[in-house]
Amino acid sequence: MLGEYRIEGRRAADISASVERAVGSGALEPGHVLPPMRELAERLGVNPNTVAAAYRTLRERGVIETAGRRGSRVRALPATTGREFLRAGVPDGVRDLSDGNPDPALLPALGPAFAAAAEQADRDPTLYGHAPAEPELVRLARAELDADGVPDGPVAVTSGALDAMERVLAAHLRPGDAVAVEDPGWGGLLDLVPALGLRTVPVGVDDEGPLPDDVRRALVSGARALIVTDRAQNPTGAVLGAARARALRSVLRDHPETLLIEDDHGHRIVDLPLRPLAGPTRRWAFVRSAAKAYGPDLRLAVLTGDAVTLDRVRGRQRLGPGWVSRITQRAVVRLWTDGAVDTPRVAAAYGRRRDALIDALTRRGVTAYGRSGLNVWIPVPDETGAVTRLLAAGWAVAPGARFRLGAPPGVRVTVSTLGEDEVCPLAEAIAGALGPGPARSYV
Q: CA-to-CA distance for 304 and 150, rounded, in angstroms?
């Protein structure tokens, strides 16, 4: 039902904009059914083809979905609103463990690196026509990628991991194509895929990463791309092990036309070895971002992949932002060469906090997951109830709906700043919020 909201417009662009504004403002909520195309065309006095074009635009933008005879409706998680709004407000006095941020105390000082980069820019300013990537950054990045077993390929620099993924997906896929994604998985990516007009195909995850049988089913059913988080999977903390990586490469060898995208945002905060999957497919991309190790405001990621993919990404980048600030790139070079992040120390700090919470929950009969990264994933029987009860007890956690497509309910706890004295009270509150009964698997 549309309630009091009236869709307006005479052109397809105006009609789609009217619906999109209403979804963004909340006037049309998730699940609202839109009028049949002919009915809306009569109401607006336009040709039904005009409404059909408007609805097609809305589908491609990830705002609505069409379910055959059941008609078109606002998506449960429309791209217009974004999953970051699927969180409870955090009142004063409540401990916020929902945000997914790194521990500021473990981030390096950026001032000296940027000062040195700015001084270099004063001596040798970057001008139009100069190379978009800092040569020393490319050299260092490629050396580390080689050491980690990532296949050889050109290197580009993007404004973070999601920027890289968007450019890679847009370089190869078209609206309506299907993309296999981890479920549960990164909320930003789960928003991005439908926003590009692509369809998500959920793939189950366990401690070792995506389940090979699920990946095989997704690719057999027509998914043209697969996106995998190699380490510090958000929200479950999964890490690709050697056996799982071999199994997934075997699946990919049977589908060599698949576009493979790997996300290694855990670089420099995880001390577990990388098991890259790239190699079995003709088109691939590997993304390594700086946000978790150096701070979310350092919007930089290095991207490598096959020559065709990188050529398309760099060509489209030239027509948009042009390049990522060379001052920022030079600052990252300085941070890397100075060893600003002590990876074993940072990984150990996050590991102690994850392990302490998981152990405390286990002693209370609660199953939880988190092999790496900043978060612990906890299956729950009633997601809304668990979040609400924890909030009343003084703890804010992230509802699993921000990270799920079809996976069972859960909550994500960010442990990056969790103190030793907080572990047992938090575990007690979680156990109380879940109530009696067996824990559920998230696969």
A: 9
Other CB atoms closer than 10 Å to residue 365's CB: what's the count? Answer: 12
Find the radius of gyration of the CA atoms of the chain: 23
Q: Any residues with CB less than 8 A from the CB of 86 and at least 6 apart, and which? A: 77, 187, 399, 401, 402
Q: Report how far residue 420's alpha carbon sits from residue 331's, in angstroms, rounded to the nearest whole number.
A: 34
Gap between the Cα atoms of 127 and 156, Å rounded = 18
pLDDT by residue, tens only, the chain of 443 residues: 445 688 989 998 888 888 888 887 788 888 888 899 999 999 999 998 998 888 888 887 778 887 666 788 887 666 655 445 445 567 888 999 999 999 999 999 999 999 999 999 999 999 999 999 999 999 999 999 999 999 999 999 999 999 999 999 999 999 889 999 999 999 999 989 988 889 899 999 999 999 999 999 999 999 999 999 999 999 999 999 999 999 999 999 999 999 999 999 999 999 999 999 999 999 999 999 999 999 999 999 999 999 999 999 999 999 999 999 999 999 999 999 999 999 999 999 999 999 999 999 999 999 999 999 999 999 999 999 999 999 999 999 999 999 999 999 999 999 999 999 999 999 999 999 997 644 434 34
Token representation of residue 218: 């997704």
**β-pair partners for 410:** 379
| Amino acid letter, residue 292 | K
DSSP 33: B
> Alpha carbon of 388 to those of 383, 393, 430, 431: distances in Å?
9, 9, 11, 13
